[in-house]
Every structure is written in structure tokens, then in C-alpha cells.
Amino acid sequence: MKKKVAVLGLGRFGKSLARSLYDAGAEVMVVDRDPSILDSMNDTFSYGITADLSAEEAIRGLGLEEMDIVVVAMASDLAASVMSVMLAKELGVPLVMAKAYDDRMGKILTRIGADRIIFPEEETGIRTARKLLSENFLEFFEIDDDLCLLEMKPKTEWVGKTLIELNLREKYQMNVVAIRNPEDLGHTLVNPKVPIAADSEMLVILERKALDRL
After folding, report:
1. What distance in Å separates the CA atoms of residue 46 and residue 15, rounded to the nearest whole number?
2. Which residues on neighbouring strands pair with residue 70, listed in sequence order?
3. Helices 78-90 and 103-111, interaxial angle, to 10°?
4. pTM of the model
5. Residue 137 banded pLDDT, cuts 50, 70, 90
6. What is the predicted pLDDT for the residue at 101?
7. For residue range 164-201, what is the model confidence (pLDDT) as tens digits?
8. Taking the CB of the first residue and of the last residue of the chain, which one, N or C, has fewer CB atoms within 10 A?
9. If pLDDT is split at 50, 70 and 90, which confidence band does 118 have?
10. What are the tens digits of pLDDT across the range 22-45?
């Protein structure tokens, strides 16, 4: 089932995030007060709405209660960000992320319910999109145009099986570099004959074109 994500505010970060989520297969709703911005995105989203995100009634009319994730991406407007975060949580959205320009704004948004704060100088829309679309992804880094590095939890169907049994290299063009188990202080070298634990963390390198299959 596709994840439903709402991106509120279409600055550079919001547009990048929305496009990346849409390209990766999510159902994406975008919202901005400027209709020309939606027109400029060339339909790289599932549906778009023009709305004043500082108005409670407008936010309540968006249908955020149907979303799996809401990303509040208009850090330049604190009032609109606060209103959007508060109402998204009130409407029962499981994960609300909010963009902030500094620690002070981040603390304010956390206090009113944001589950995670995004600092634009630390994250790009593409990286955030990849992390949002998989519950297994813990970290995502682009190595170059073809390769990426992931820190991830094992998929449910991998638990209790060895790397030899799983044959991940053939299925996903993926190389497991290291595995960290709860009792370990850091990542350890891979023993392909040891079954994978549910609470372990895997460090892997794979081709970007294999991300969708993963």
C-alpha cells in the first residue's frame, strides 16, 4: 500500500521532497497558498491544493486525518508552522515532521507536537524522502550518482535467516558491509552464517536503481 504524505509549503525544500516522494511511489498531496507554484511543478504530485496555511479552517479542510505523514515545510512562517503542526497532531496524523531554521524554532515546534524537526542545512528533500518511504531505513547517504549507503533495520522476512540463505547481493544488488547487534558497541564485520536478529542494524551499499525493490 502506498504511503500517503502531505507536504505543506512549497519552497525549495518542500518541492524537492514532494517530487522525490512522488517519484518513489508515494501518494503525495502538496499544499501552498500560491497556485503558480503548484503549476510550476508539472504535476509531480498526486494532487495539489491552494490554501492559506495560517488559517485553522483551511487546514482542517485539507483531509490531513487521512495522511500517514505530514511534513510542515514553511519554516519562514512560524505562525503557519505552529498552526499546521498542532492541527495535524490533533487530527491524529501518526508522523508530523516540521522544518525549522534554528534550534529555537525547532524547540517551539517540538513543544507543540512535532515528532521530528528538519533543519534544511542538514538534510535534503531527496534524503528525507527515502527515509520516509521505508520504516526500515535509519539513515540514507548518496555516495555518487549510482551508489548509496544505507543504515537499516532488517526486513521482517529476513529475521532468523543468514546472509547466505537470503542471497541479498543477487536479489537487490546489495552488499552488507557490517551489522550491529544490541549488545555491540559498534558495527561488526559480517559473518554470513549467523542468523540476523530482529533488533540488529545493517550497514549496506547498493545501487540506487535497486532502492525501489528494497
Report:
1. 13
2. 6, 96
3. 30
4. 0.64
5. confident
6. 83
7. 999 998 888 888 888 877 665 555 667 888 899 888 88
8. N
9. confident
10. 887 889 999 999 999 999 988 789
Residue written as cell 543504515? 151
Distance CA 19, CA 112 (A): 28
Q: What is the 3-state secondary structure (H, E, C) of the chain?
A: CCCEEEEECCCHHHHHHHHHHHHCCCEEEEEECCHHHHHHCCCCCCEEEECCCCCHHHHHCCCHHHCCEEEECCCCCHHHHHHHHHHHHHCCCCEEEEECCCHHHHHHHHHCCCCEEECCCCCCHHHHHHHHCCCCEEEEEECCCCEEEEEECCCHHHCCCCHHHHCHHHHHCEEEEEEECCCCCCCEECCCCCCCCCCCEEEEEEEHHHCCCC
In whole angstroms, what is the distance from residue 108 CA to residue 114 CA? 9
| The one-letter amino acid at 95 | L
Give the span between the Cα atoms of 58 and 195, in whole angstroms: 51
What share of the chain in percent tops pLDDT 90?
Answer: 41
What distances in angstroms separate CA 165 from CA 81, 157, 173, 199, 214, one per listed residue?
48, 12, 15, 19, 17
